Amino acid sequence: MNITPTSVYTIRFNDCDLFGHLNNARYIDYFLNAREDHLKQYHDLDLTEFYKNNIAWVVGGHEIAYLRPALYNEVVTIQSTLLAADAEYLLVETQMKSENSTHLKAIMRTRFVPINTKTGRKEPHAISFLDWAKTIENTSVVPYGNLQERIKQLL
């Protein structure tokens, strides 16, 4: 099973600023969309099925670092991986790199908190979900380290 799926995206004009750089806020959209694509394509996990069962995740926080600009019409690769899963949250890391993956452009860590969509309240992950999540958890990356330390490791 691929625990670090990667896909290719093209930076769109309407996502860029006047200088042709990907807008800082749009990196988050690219990262979250890529993770959703990865879950569906590589792990056969469709988020709409969870929503139908009143299960969803809200973002508890993002930590992001912009290292090199992504430019209009540039082809980039986005990789995602699950760093940690427990009853209270999921910690996901996403990386945007150049098309040939030689240059790290940005990295983001996101903490997702499970909620019940009927009540709108936090609800622990089901044991069956956690059992599955542990099969794709990337134990080769230290999940609780400083993002700057992680960047140094990658560079």
Descriptive account of the structure:
With 155 residues, the chain is of the alpha+beta class. The chain has one domain: Thiol Ester Dehydrase, Chain A, CATH 3.10.129. The protein is 28% helix and 34% strand. It is built from four helices and six strands, in the order βααβββββαα. Strands 1, 2, 3, 4, 5 and 6 form a six-stranded antiparallel sheet that branches. A hairpin with a 5-residue loop joins strand 4 and strand 5. The chain is globular, with a radius of gyration of 16 Å. It starts with 5 loop residues before the first strand and ends with a helix.
What's the topology here?
Blueprint: E1 6-10, H1 24-43, H2 47-52, E2 55-66, E3 75-85, E4 90-98, E5 104-116, E6 121-122, H3 127-136, H4 147-154
Antiparallel strand pairs: 1-3, 2-5, 3-4, 4-5, 5-6
Summarize this structure briefly.
The protein is α+β, with helices and mostly antiparallel strands and 155 residues long.
Mean pLDDT: 93
Class of secondary structure makeup? alpha+beta
| CATH class membership | Alpha Beta
Point out poorly predicted stretches: none
Gyration radius, rounded:
16 Å
Helix content estimate: 25-40%
Question: Hey, roughly how much beta strand do the residues contain?
Answer: 25-35%
- End-to-end separation in angstroms reads 26 Å
Number of domains: 1
CATH level-3 fold name: Thiol Ester Dehydrase, Chain A
Q: Say which CATH homologous superfamily is assigned.
A: Hotdog Thioesterase
